[in-house]
């Protein structure tokens, strides 16, 4: 399971718990007063979290960040007001159902504002999720949904507000000029909660006098609302920093499943076929998004260095057109970043790369990228050659043929004791142009002949002897040693690396 998905599921569950606790406050507080509690009591914990992440020194703030985060903070407040207002129209289910269009709207706004794209399969998954949440939102029929009324417009406005807030928070986090994913998300959350507490507090002071005092008096329950709400929000912000906001919000609809299960467990309510179908659709959407929207190559930025991860573990990170395009894109992006000085190239799932994905090449009908593959793969190697930052390779298990070319292209290579590199094209009557190019550029003719002409596997210790690898470590220590090397190189004075 990918990190953003796991974080989203935890955040959705915690949001459900927070909502249950908030309901206990509605007897003593107004609806707006109970909503204010989530901001007021989460704020101190958000500051502690942000200060801990940044060690008291916030960096990378810029005008673009402030515009995004202010837009997100205000949009979330307006969306909540629209949703609550829709409940007063007598069409609770209709308002709720239309507010759940937020995932689809977030995908649209993300495309327009942040140029975040999603595949057609993910769009289909979001639509599937929307159908599921409509079934779970109440006994509302198609005729109710198609009939224009005030609840419909307020629900759509709420969905738009929540979508804009998600895009605003993602945009704010991505616009910061410094920081890891956690730091960016944590700082965005801290600023957003501060703004929302001030804005909502001013509104209550002017329009609902006495609610702030009541909120302070209800601290025993409200404190838990704040703690749990802050952790949930930290999860949402982190997930949306890692992934398209529309996709995160679509998966987040699973919160409704938690609500249904809570109703069964606490209130003894019975499930109907409508709810069961809705649950199936929401879960199926989550699976579809996980299966189809994964990047073929991912990048993870740390302090001073970054990872480029070949991300097709189900195919042993085998090479196809999308992987070649994504590899070139990730390397180019990181090469242009001033805060990245060293790059680690590795494979997901405990293996480096098994070579060309012959199954993909032989599909019927052929994928559109097949005709352009030579150009695509040339572009990937051109990006490796042009990269100004040193590249450290982490060779786990194997690097075969085309995968071997990627390993040889690395400036430094850390390999496991039983891991191997194999340039075996000669054994199957194929040329190995990229292997030969990198070998002739970096290594002696004798070493190149031993690797290429016979085509046998060369394990870790032998790769060190031949000069192909710098370190051979225990198989389970390859990533640890590679990351330690990158972290060390990232501390060198500017100009010393890259």
Automatic annotation (TrEMBL):
Its signal peptide is: 1-19
Give the matching InterPro entries. Answer: ClpP/crotonase-like_dom_sf, EamA_dom, EmrE-like, Enoyl-CoA_hydra/iso
Transmembrane portions of the chain: 35-54, 66-87, 107-138, 150-169, 181-206, 218-238, 250-268
**What does the UniProt keyword field contain?**
Membrane, Signal, Transmembrane, Transmembrane helix
Q: Which Gene Ontology terms of cellular component type are present? A: membrane
Please give the name of this protein: EamA domain-containing protein
Instruction: Report the source organism.
Output: Symbiodinium pilosum
A matching Pfam family? EamA
Q: PANTHER family attached here? A: ENOYL-COA HYDRATASE (PTHR43802), IP11341P-RELATED (PTHR43802:SF1)
Q: What is the lineage of its organism?
A: Eukaryota, Sar, Alveolata, Dinophyceae, Suessiales
Family affiliation:
Belongs to the enoyl-CoA hydratase/isomerase family.
Domain EamA: start-end pairs = 4-137, 152-283
